[in-house]
Every structure is written in structure tokens, then in C-alpha cells.
Amino acid sequence: MTYSPRKYPPRSKTVAHRKTRLVSIRPGADSRLKKVFATIGRPAPRPFQPDPFQLEAVAAVGRSDCLVSAPTGAGKTWIAVQTIRQRFDAGGRSWYASPLKALSNAKYGEFREIFGREQVGILTGDRKENPEAAVIVGTTEILRNQLYDAMHRGEDLTTDFVVLDEAHFLGDPDRGVVWEEVMIYLPVRIPLLLLSATIGNADQIAGWLTAIRGRPCRVVAENQRPVPLYPLLLHPSGTLYPLLVPAGPSKKNVLHKKVRDFIGSQHPPQLAAPGKLPPFGDMLRVLRKFRLLPAIFFLKSRADCDNAVDLCRQNQNRSPERQERLSRRIAVLVAQSPHVAGHRQMRALEHLAVAAHHSGQLPSWKILVETLMLEGLLDAVFATSTVAAGVNFPARTVAFLNSDRFNGTEFLPLTATEFHQMTGRAGRRGMDQIGFALAVPTKFMDLRYIARLIGAAPSPVLSQIKINFSMVLNLLLSHSPGQIEELLQKSFGAYQQAQARGRKGGGRQAPTGTAVLWQAFLQHLDFLKTHGYVDAADALTADGLWASQLRVDQPLLIAEGFRDALFPESDASILAGIIAAFVNEREVDDRIPKEAISKQLLSSFLKVKRGLRPFARDMQDHGFVVNPLFFRPAVAIYAWAKGQPWDQVVSLAAIEEGNLAMLILRTADNLRHIRSLGRVFPAAADTAGSAIDLILRDPVVTFYDS
Question: 212 with 240, same domain?
Fold first, then answer.
């Protein structure tokens, strides 16, 4: 079900500057903050005592499904561990699904320490270890695929309990459909525990699950942060002010007078000249003076994160003992991924205790930074908003320089949920008595809007279910179209639409959620019939059966390529390059130096592109999206598979190394599905396996041991 996005006003400048007036930063603090700063420190050690909401959730899972909605860092993992332990002690099996491979890897290490190394397995695509273990950690897509396979075989899923971590991903525009499918397909006998950041419609989600699963779903909500949050303003002079005055009878957040005066000033001072980043080294000096480190600075772009690191040269006021600990820890971690030793920010990491963290960087570098921050060895990390979701990355202070964020297409104001996820990193449970949210006035900081977000209710989760060819093929493995229509009636999108119609009542009714989904299903089904993947009796043909195993973004194009013998079946490097062209979703510049082009690769690429052109046009004519095939991704992955040095491949790909690593990982995922076609295309399956081995190596894949 597709919902219209919320409309926001255009990105606006909160502080209108007619003149640039820069001032020297001198650490200072409003006198009202003296009592607040006096509470900074580590809580006294005490035996762990679970919070009431944690005990309530554990008890609820014994009787029903359970959705836990609680702030970031509140202790939701403890609930998962206790409920998994109950099954483990009874000889049962559990599945822990998370949205991120990095998070799955972290939980895998954590659970092995708790339940024993031989009792825990991991399934993320990149890793397949101990798959028959009593406790399985993996990505949600792997769990969904296991449900497809179980339904096809007419078997039950071989687990007794499922935990869906970061369950608010149900509303993710790209991947939310996977969460929704898991909830719809999961056998009723298997209890379901959903762990989520605070969401605005937890009761609605629970009501939907109760309706489709026939067993109650209990909501356990906790709104209290485990560590209190105090909002601050960093004045360009270097003086810290309370952002808000204490809440009065109205309970509405009111800006502090000094903040209002600053906003209303005709020519307010600025931290930096227009188009320049603020002096982060001086800002760290302010935070250090008042014991507000470590800090996470949320910046608008990857480039800003990287450039911010270069502005921290003054950050050298650290104790020799802490510096020695940092250097030793870096040496241990770098030994497990030697490539990151040459990272251009390594010197800043080791000597200034600062780093950038964003999706343009290698997974191994991000894990290194996350590990050091988690262990309290860094002073500051400069990150994009992606670090807020699903990564254990705590600090004493989070700093905002913008009240909006870039979603990949445009800048939109932060939602309440996004803001609360970010501020959830402020204040480390067991390490801090108080956390701080620091507003830094810049060109695109709306201080009034931030004040509203601090007390705003979390955003609701909206269904993102949509029909695709992989879903249709896999459902037809085990269901008739009539049964599939019944499944679609169980969708969260249909439930939300029905509730919306009930609230509006009367008048002309829009098509129901089920009707829209059903029409989309029939559109996909008719196309599959036209091209011989489904027969007249609505059953998969022989080609449809093996095509269903291609659980990738463009399954029909790849399937058609194999049906028409367009793909190379004997050269692993060329196959890896060709598949990368299907994985790529970016429009790229295909002007490549002739000396970098393999004639064999070019010949294979043109054969595939020309051979699939009629089929692709037919898909487009029927209203389906077809991503164009670009040659540059194929050239880059081919070069990597042929053993060219990483830096040369990055230059050839003309993208950031984190994006190249993601392209390689997704290419490997596609190749794994091709490898599963051994009974139909044995040569191609063997070649796909060889291609995976060629492209999955350091620095693309690295797993740190603690």
C-alpha cells in the first residue's frame, strides 16, 4: 500500500544573515546550568535491576505476542535475551532478526557469550555459520526467505520463537514490505516479539497482528528515557545556554529568553562564514571544559562529516593513559583488517580521537569507529543520520547542526521519530546520569522546530507493502491466486485503509487497500503468464519454479537472461561484472578509458543489454520499472574480481568506497541466488560460486573479534 508522503515546507533559513559577524569562541555557560552540570557523572554501581516494563514484556511473551515500544537505549535487548533464554532452557529454538548486517554481527557476538559459541548461528548472506543452532541471528530478508521455502515445502518453520528487532522498519519505504511479509506469513504457533523505538501507533500495529494471527498481541510501552535528556544551545560566542525554560502548567516547551533573543537579533553572530563548517576543534574545547564529551555531531552530508575531522586539530588535550589505551586498541582491531591502517582519517582517529562515520565508508572502518566509541575511547564522531538507526553508538552529547535531513532525494524536516532516535544516543545507560542534546545554530537550523520535536509524540508507522515479481513467484509456489488474495487482505496496509474509511464514514469510498494490492498482483500475474513463467491454470511453469529462487531486485530480467543464454557461464569475473550492472541503481557516467575496458567483458555486456532490450521494453510498456544497465559498475566489479588493487577499483568505479563495498555485497547476494540454480544451470551456478569467492575479501568483508 502506497501512502502520500507528508508535505513539508521548503527548506528555510532560520537565521537570516545580512552580514557575516564572526566572534571568537570562548568556553562559557549560563549560570542556570551550574546545577545541571553538577549532575554529570557515572552512576554509582549497583546490581542490575530490570525496569518494570522489561519484566512486563517478558511475562507477556509467555501468554501472547508482544510489541515493545521504548526509547533507544532503554534495554530492549535484555527482554530479547530473557525470552530467548526461556525457549533455550526448554530445548526450543529462536530466531532473532535485525535490519542490518552490522547489527546482526554484533548480536551474534553478544549472544555467543551468553548462550555459548556452539549454540548460536548467524545467517546474513555474507555469513552462514552454524545454521542448525538453537539461536539464530540474521537479517529479516533471510527469515522471510526461509518462510517462503517452508510454505513451498509444506513444512513449518524450524523455530519456536521469533524476535523482530527494530520493528519500526515496518514503515521503511524500501524494506518495510519484508517486515510486513514476515508478520503475515509467520505460523501462528510461533510467538512473536517485536522490539521497536517509540512509535505513535503501537496499538494499531498490535490490533492488526491480533486480527490476522488470531492470538492477542500485547503492547508494552515505555516513554521514560533511561537517562534524562537536557537540551542546550551553543551560542556562537562559545557560551552554553539552556534551550528551553522549565515546563510550566501548559507542559509546552518554551524557548529560553536568551535563545529567543538570539533568534530575534537582526545581525546575530555566526559560528562560520557562509558555506563554511564551524570550528569543530573550538567547539570540542567548549564541550570538554564542561565534561560534555564524548559527542556525536549529526551533519547533513558525508563530505561535511569528512571535512569536520580536519577541523579538529586542536583536540589534543587528552590524558597520556587514555591516549595509550586508544592506540593499543586500534592496533588490535587494525590487525584484523589491515586495509583500514591506510585510511586517510587514521591519524585523526589515533591522535585526535575523532572520526567520521557514514555510508560512504567501508564496513570495516565503520565497525572500527563504532567499537572505539562504544568503549569510550573517542571524543567525537561526525555522522549522518543513518548512524541513529540500529547501531549501538552511545555518547554523552548529541549535537544537531540542521533541523532537517537529506533522504536521498530532498531535504525534509526531521520527524519526531528520527529526532528521538538521534537523541536516544545521548546519555549512556550505566555510564551517564544525564545526556545532552546540543543545538548548534547554522543556516538550516530551526530552533523553534527543534523545541517542538523535543516534546513531540513519535510518528506513526505506515504500511509500505507493495507487489513485486519475486513476491508473486514465491507465493505461487504454495498458494493459489484466491489464497494469495486472502493473504493480501491480511496486510497492514489494508488494515490501515479500512480503519481510515471507518473514521471517515459515508460518502464516496476510495478503493480498499486489498483492492489496490489485488490489482497489482493480477497485473504481475498476467505478465508472468504472457512470458511463460505461469501457466493458464495459475501454476508456476518449470521456468517459474527456478525463477522463484531469484529473490533479487530484478528477478525477471535475470531469469530472462538465463532463458535466452545471454549470461556467461564459464568466466566468474565476467559474470560478477555483468550481475553488478543489474544491482546498480545509480545513474553513472559510462565514459571509461579504453585501456580499462576488457573486450571480453564489453562483448558480454552488449550481448546481455541488446538481448534483453525487447523484454525490458515490454516490461516498461506494461507499467513496470526497469533500471537501465550501465557499464561502469560492470567494469569496476570485473576489475576487483580480477585482483586489481582496491584503490584502483575505487577510482575506476568513481564512487565512494563504502558505496563500492555495498555494490560488491549486493552483487554477491545476487550471485548466491544464481548459485542456487544448480539443477537447472549447473555451469552458471558453479561459476557464480567462484565469483562470490573472488569478490568477497578484505576490505569488503571483515568481522572483528572482540
Answer: no
Q: What is the mean predicted confidence (pLDDT) over 279-284?
A: 95
As for how many domains the chain has, the answer is 3
**Which candidate, 429, 435, 374, places its Cα nearest to that of 48?**
429
Report the half-sphere exposure of 459 (CA within 13 A, side-chain side).
20
What's the full length of the chain, in residues?
A: 706
In a shared domain, residues 272 and 352: yes
pLDDT for 148 equals: 97
Three-class SS state of 436: strand
pLDDT in tens, 320-367: 898 999 999 999 999 988 889 999 999 999 999 999 999 899 988 998
- pLDDT above 70 for 240: yes
* Rounded CA separation 388/384 (Å): 8
Phi, psi of 322 (to 5 degrees): -70, -35
Grid cell at residue 555: 528477478
In a domain, 518, yes or no: yes
Residues 357 and 498 in one domain: no
Cα(353)–Cα(380) distance, rounded to whole angstroms? 7
506: its cell numbers? 459515508
- Where is the domain boundary, 221, 244, 265? 221
82 has pLDDT over 50: yes
pLDDT at 11 over 70: no
Decide if 701 is inside a domain.
no
Q: Nearest Cα to 199, choosing from 67, 350, 346, 333?
A: 67
pLDDT band at 667 (very low <50, low <70, confident <90, very high): very high
Amino acid at 391: V
Q: How far apart are CA 602 and CA 607, in angstroms?
A: 8
178 and 256 inside one domain: no
d(CA 433, CA 427) in angstroms, rounded, equals 7
Residue 79 resides in a domain: yes
Give the end of a domain, one of 221, 251, 272.
Answer: 221
What pLDDT does residue 33 have? Answer: 96
Give the range of the structural domain holding residue 148, as residue numbers without chain letter.
52-221
> Would 42 be classed as within a structural domain?
no
Whether 525 and 481 map to the same domain: the answer is yes
The one-letter amino acid code at 182 reads V
pLDDT digits (tens, 9 = 90+) for 386-429: 665 556 678 999 999 999 988 777 888 999 988 988 898 899 88
pLDDT at 319 over 90: no
Task: Tell whether 86 and 168 lie within a shared domain.
Answer: yes
Record the cell numbers describing residue 234, joined without a space: 551553543
Query: 206, 60 in Cβ contact below 8 A?
Result: no
What's the CATH code of the domain at 487? 1.10.3380.30
Q: What are the percentages of helix, strand and coil residues in the chain, rounded to 5?
A: 45, 10, 40
Q: Are residues 232 and 213 in the same domain?
A: no
User: Helix (H) and strand (E) counts for the chain?
Assistant: 27, 20
Give the separation between CA 282 and CA 280, rounded to whole angstroms.
5
> Does residue 556 sit in the same domain as residue 672?
yes
pLDDT at 450 (0 to 100): 95
Model pTM?
0.90
How far apart, in Å, do the first and last CA atoms of the chain sit?
42
Average pLDDT, the chain: 91
- Integer Cα distance of 492 and 204 in angstroms: 9
Range 123-162 burial, b when 16+ CB lie within 10 A, else e:
bbbbbebbeebbbbbbbbbbbbbbbbebbbeeeebebbbb
